[in-house]
Every structure is written in structure tokens, then in C-alpha cells.
Specification:
Helix content: 40-55%
CATH topology: Nuclear Transport Factor 2, Chain: A
Largest sheet: 4 strands, antiparallel
Order of helices and strands: HHHHEEEE
Strand content: 25-35%
Distance between the termini: 53 Å
CATH class: Alpha Beta
Number of domains: 1
Structural class: alpha+beta
Number of strands: 4
CATH architecture: Roll
Shape: globular
Number of helices: 4
Length: 130
């Protein structure tokens, strides 16, 4: 009886940890971008992302769009949604996270990051700022 109870309790604590994996991965990847280490952010991205965009093009895009926004003052999760498929992508594990972000040069922005677990780890598949 005690083993069964411990097993059930362990499941209760495991689910939130697993749910936090994509959130933690997204936050870590955004922190790399926040430090303007655009090459490393490309290296840490999902293989599909890297197949679609060269390291040079990614760096140029971030320099023109992200750098002018300045430093991050605050960032909070607005939406965190899991999907088993996305348009033009194979079936798999995906998470879309939207953040309300306050930059030093743009007070209200929405960052959207799409993560994939196709490589066995949660990795960035897409990034957009509005």
C-alpha cells in the first residue's frame, strides 16, 4: 500500500516537471538571444530550423529586428500550448509559447517561440516578435 501511494505521489510531481521542460528550454534559448549571442542561438536551434535558415541569415535577421529593441526589462508567459502537429511539419511534439515582453526600446511586445522535440530535446523551431 505504501509503495503504491509513493508511486502515485511521484507521478504528481513528475508531470509538472515534464510540463516545465519546454518552458525552461524556451527561456534558456531566449536568454542566449538576449545576450546577442545569435550564432549560439542558431547552433542550439532545432535541426529543421537550421535547414531552413543559414547561421549568417539568422544573425542578420536578429541584428536588424531584435537588437534595436534593446535590453529585456521583463518577460512573462502569456500562452503555453502543446501540439502534436503543425502546418507543413511532420507529426511530433511541439509547444508554442507567447511572452509579453518589455524591452528598453519597446514597452509592449509579444514574442512567440515554437519548440520541437524532434531531436530528443526541446529546441527552438521558430521565433517571432510583434
Amino acid at each position: 500500500m505504501m509503495k503504491k501511494l509513493l508511486f502515485i505521489l511521484s507521478l504528481c510531481f513528475t508531470v509538472p516537471v515534464l510540463a516545465n521542460e519546454p518552458l525552461n528550454a524556451g527561456k534558456a534559448w531566449l536568454n542566449i538571444i538576449d545576450k546577442a549571442n545569435y550564432t549560439k542561438s542558431w547552433q542550439e536551434a532545432d535541426p529543421t530550423f537550421k535547414d531552413q535558415l543559414t547561421k549568417q541569415k539568422w544573425g542578420e535577421a536578429l541584428k536588424s529586428v531584435r537588437t534595436p529593441l534593446g535590453h529585456v526589462n521583463s518577460r512573462e508567459v502569456l500562452i503555453h500550448k502543446e501540439y502534436d502537429s503543425l502546418p507543413n511539419m511532420p507529426k511530433g511534439d511541439y509547444v508554442v509559447i507567447q511572452y509579453k515582453t518589455n524591452f528598453s526600446n519597446k514597452k509592449e511586445a509579444v514574442e512567440t517561440i515554437t519548440l520541437s522535440k524532434s531531436s530528443g530535446q526541446w529546441r527552438a523551431l521558430g521565433y517571432f516578435i510583434k
